[in-house]
Write a structure and sequence with these properties.
The chain is of the alpha/beta class and 740 residues long. The chain has 26 helices and 21 strands. Helix 8 crosses helix 9 and helix 16 runs parallel beside helix 24. Keywords: ATP-binding, DNA damage, DNA repair, DNA-binding, Helicase, Hydrolase, Nucleotide-binding.
């Protein structure tokens, strides 16, 4: 049912109508090429980035050099002067935003008509790339449209001027070839000709949550009559995004509850009890509580699907190992997937140490209820691989550790009962699915992450998983102090950082030096882009930094190099040497970010720290302070004081609360990425919803989704709603959410 008076005529045009039929072929081509907009619906859902008001400033002073911007400003003065290097004049127009911030607009050539048009007092929208000349911010040859009165040139197009006649002026995500006012003109044409889409939201939900209709919401978000109407429009469209995601997750959770799984209950007097008895330390209350939750899940006839999150060093691995032993006690096998061979090998060594004779089934000194722990990686030799695969296939190996090599053909399990995925964001969904397919029935799944997840993100991304959190650190973990080292402003501070590292080594400890890049050669997963948009130098590289340190500030120390491009056996040898204290310093990429556990390492120096994300820095520094001595993390950066990059580093240095940092990280990333847009390379559909600011709305959407799915699991009685959910969360993204 269409919304009455929601605009649109009986033209036969719908949201699926190609734009070229509505706005002309040339404009449609530009919208498609530069913004990925092809249909009327694409354009209607291309929402304004913000709204300007004449008389209110847009804070010109906060604009970053190199940024493509659209500003609402008033002409203050104009000046014409001859150019020095060539014939002709230069027109300089100074515009201001009412806050004291000013921009200089420069136009080359003899353009007397522009001087007449851009007279002092006129307001306009000016779009271009911010540059800086002699300390002044400027736009060279910007596109612009003047507001009110008409004028010459582009501003004379009355219909474009009319678009900005209201109090609230929409400013769209735009491109240099398609400025915001062209988008606004096209939106107006579409709104006036296209029949609004049917409102898919059940009337009861709209009434319960006091939501406006879809047609009016789409009109008001583009051409708001007032701030109140705009708020109501945004709230309705945010609701649609939250509701689609929550319906998808609740549906999948509902279906999963019907899947059969083999129960793996605890067995008194078995491997798990024997392990607990030989554990050299006491479990934290949090580990015991989470252990009970997981044990109860494993005992049910439906597959567990649980996320275990906890700070670096909170003891997740021991919790996971106890779950694996419960499954082995119940006659099954457990597999742990690690993101790198280094980490898989470390898990293997760590579990062999913890289990001792419990991991030596078939050997003379094996314990009574022993099993075998096998490592399966791509770098195993042929004979070792055949032996390991036979142990797995015949069920003698109760615990199997590896990377994605576990997914290859030829790795068969006798009875796979539990899959543990360590740092799940390192794996593609297809890889996790392939491992689950190796069981006769869906195995239980435990996902572990050391990246703290804000509550609303967990609700939105992991809404079909039960979530357990380990918040306590085990006894014996030491505090970590973090400081920013401003290398450009105070080079002496960097010298002091290297001296500090040497002091720690002299005291018998070890250190990490982390770089954002490996060095010359093919790119890898851990390698960021070589250059950024502002043309800064390439990030520092391990292979370039290590020899400079060996010859310079760290001369005489034993230095090892570790990165993802080394052969697996070489990586393992380096890590073994470092863990054994045969190396003083490890110069590495983020390959050490997850799981590398060397209690004697007390200092980490992160070079070009501004090139890393907040959560990544938090993970990295968790590699130090793992023993009895306090940890020190020094974040070296050339970012200027007061810049966003420097503020980010200051925030990391100011707190070790991973949840606070996770929220900061989320604020600084595109929140839409949570729907898998990054994975698929496609546009995200979370255009308005903020996972931080819209907590209550997301919670309400989940409650309504649960009610509807309980009554109508497949939305058979709500076909329009089902179609809307499919459009917002297509099958690819739905699978990403399910398997995430």
């Amino acid at each position: 049912m269409s919304e009455p008076n929601a605009g649109g005529g009986d033209t036969g045009a719908t949201v699926d109508t190609p734009l070229k039929k509505l706005v002309g072929e040339k404009t449609a081509k530009a919208l498609a090429a530069h913004l990925g907009l092809h249909t009327a619906g694409d354009l209607i859902y291309h929402f304004p980035r913000r709204y300007d008001e004449r008389g209110e400033h847009t804070d010109i002073r906060s604009l970053d050099v190199g940024e493509q911007v659209t500003v609402l400003a008033q002409v203050q003065r104009t000046a014409v002067r001859p150019m020095r290097q060539r014939r002709g004049n230069l027109l300089e127009v100074t515009v201001g935003d009412g806050s004291g911030g000013v921009l200089t607009l420069t136009f080359f050539g003899n353009q007397a008509w522009r001087e007449r048009e851009l007279r002092p007092g006129r307001w306009g929208l000016f779009a271009g790339k911010v540059t800086e000349f002699r300390g002044k911010r400027q736009l060279n040859g910007p596109e612009y449209v003047l507001l009110g009165e008409g004028g010459e040139g582009e501003a004379a197009a009355n219909e474009e001027v009319e678009e900005f006649a209201g109090a609230l002026i929409p400013v769209y995500p735009a491109a240099a070839a398609v400025p915001t006012w062209v988008i606004a003109r096209c939106v107006r044409v579409v709104l006036d000709t296209v029949t609004p889409p049917e409102d898919p939201l059940p009337v009861t939900v709209r009434a319960n949550r006091n939501l406006v209709g879809l047609g009016p919401a789409l009109r008001e978000i583009h051409r708001p009559s007032s701030k109140e109407d705009l708020y109501r429009a945004r709230r309705r469209l945010k609701w649609d995004e939250a509701f689609a995601v929550q319906l998808t997750l609740v549906q999948r959770k509902h279906r999963a509850a019907d899947w059969p799984a083999r129960p793996r209950p605890e067995r008194p007097g078995g491997l798990l009890d024997a392990f607990d008895a030989r554990l050299p330390y006491e479990l934290t209350p949090g580990q015991r509580d989470v252990g009970r939750e997981i044990a109860a899940d494993l005992a049910t006839p439906h597959p567990m699907h649980r996320l275990l999150q906890g700070e670096v060093g909170s003891g997740k691995t021991v919790v996971a190992l106890r779950a694996m032993l419960q499954v082995v006690d119940a006659g099954g096998q457990a597999a742990l997937l690690a993101p790198t061979e280094v980490l898989a090998a470390q898990h293997h060594r760590g579990m062999l140490d913890l289990l001792g004779p419990l991991a030596r089934a078939g050997e003379l000194d094996a314990a009574e209820h022993a099993t075998r722990v096998e490592l399966v990686t791509g770098s195993l030799g042929a004979a070792a691989r055949r032996r390991a695969l036979a142990e797995v296939a015949q069920g003698r190996a109760g615990i199997v550790l590896g990377t994605h090599a576990l997914l290859y053909e030829g790795v068969d399990f006798a009875d796979l009962g539990l899959v543990v995925v360590d740092e799940q964001h390192r794996f593609g969904v297809e890889q996790r699915d392939a491992l689950r397919a190796k069981a006769d029935q869906p195995p239980h799944v435990l996902v572990m992450t050391a990246t703290p997840i804000p509550r609303t993100v967990a609700m939105t991304v992991y809404g079909d998983l039960e979530i357990s959190t380990l918040s306590q650190l085990p006894r014996g973990r030491s505090p970590i102090a973090s400081h920013v080292v401003p290398a450009a402003e105070k080079p002496a501070f960097l010298d002091r950082a290297w001296r500090r590292l040497r002091e720690e080594v002299a005291a018998g400890h070890q250190a990490y030096v982390v770089c954002p890049r490996i060095g010359e050669g093919p790119a890898s997963e851990e390698e960021p882009p070589r250059e950024d948009d502002n043309g800064r130098r390439p990030p520092l590289a391990v292979t370039e930094v290590a020899p400079l340190l060996a010859e310079g500030p760290l001369h005489g120390l034993r230095i090892g190099v570790l990165h993802g491009r080394l052969p697996a056996d070489e990586k393992d040898a380096v890590m073994r040497s470092f863990a054994a204290g045969q190396l003083d310093v490890l110069v590495a990429t983020t390959v050490v970010e997850v799981g590398v556990d060397v209690p004697n390492a007390t200092v980490m120096i992160v070079l070009d720290a501004d090139r890393f994300g907040v959560s990544q820095l938090h993970q990295l520094r968790g590699r130090v302070g793992r023993g009895s001595a306090p940890g020190l993390c020094l974040l070296v950066s050339e970012a200027a004081e007061g810049s966003p990059a420097r503020e980010r580093l200051d925030a990391v240095a100011s707190t070790t609360d991973g949840f606070k940092l996770a929220e900061l990280d989320l604020e600084q990333r595109r929140e839409g990425d949570v729907l898998g847009a990054t994975q698929s390379g496609r546009r995200s559909h979370l255009r308005l919803l903020s996972l931080l600011r819209d907590t209550d709305l997301i919670r309400d959407a989940r409650a309504e989704a649960i009610t509807i799915v309980e009554e109508d699991p497949e939305l058979v009685r709500h076909p329009a709603l089902a179609a809307s959910v499919a459009a917002l969360v297509d099958e690819e993204r739905a699978e990403y959410l399910e398997k995430g």
